[in-house]
Amino acid sequence: MSDFFDRVHEVCRQIPAGRVSSYGAIAKFLGAARSARMVGYAMNASIGKEGVPAHRVVNRLGMLSGKHYFGGSTLMQELLENEGVPVANDQVQNFETYFWNPADHLDPEKY
DNA sequence: AGCGTGACGTATA
DNA sequence: TTATACGCCACGC
């Protein structure tokens, strides 16, 4: 348990396949609503670690902001599509439909 | 101990 | 409506 990073990693790990979440939602869930940037920052450190599907985390607009950091290719988009999440123009389609709110499925007291 | 940085988000022009 | 500016807060140097 380093810090925020590990907490973010844990939450991301809880995101089911075929669903996506947002940085702000995770940040808010962790109690640091204004640290959405930190969430993304933590994800960057999570890349390469199994169990931390960073590709399931996008910004509030459902935009694949960090796909550039994901190997520099369309890997992120392909991963999402492979899980059943339609992506077009680096943007998740029907984002609200696939959005997965951690606060709605996880126990805040546990984190 | 301090400064710069950043996969965001909200406010303002 | 789109574009630009600012704030945030933890991490690395």
Written account of the structure:
The chain is mostly helical and 111 residues long. It has a single domain, classed as Winged helix-like DNA-binding domain superfamily/Winged helix DNA-binding domain (Arc Repressor Mutant, subunit A, Orthogonal Bundle). The chain is 36% helix and 7% strand. β3 (87-88) and β4 (91-92) form a beta hairpin. α1 crosses α3 and α2 (23-29) crosses α3. The protein is globular, with a radius of gyration of 13 Å. The structure holds a DNA duplex (13 and 13 nucleotides).
Poorly predicted spans: none
Please give the number of β-strands.
Answer: 4
Helix amount: 25-40%
> What is the CATH superfamily classification?
Winged helix-like DNA-binding domain superfamily/Winged helix DNA-binding domain
**What is the CATH level 1 assignment?**
Mainly Alpha
Q: Report Rg.
A: 13 Å
Cα(first) to Cα(last) distance is 12 Å
**Count of structural domains:** 1
Question: Strand order within the widest sheet?
Answer: 1-2
Secondary-structure blueprint of this entry?
Elements: H1 4-13, E1 21-22, H2 23-29, H3 36-46, E2 57-58, H4 75-82, E3 87-88, E4 91-92, H5 95-98
Parallel strand pairs: 1-2
Antiparallel strand pairs: 3-4
The chain binds a DNA duplex (13 and 13 nucleotides) through helix 2, helix 3 and strand 2.
Features:
5 helices, Arc Repressor Mutant, subunit A, two-stranded parallel ribbon, 111 residues, DNA-binding, mainly alpha, single chain, two-stranded antiparallel sheet
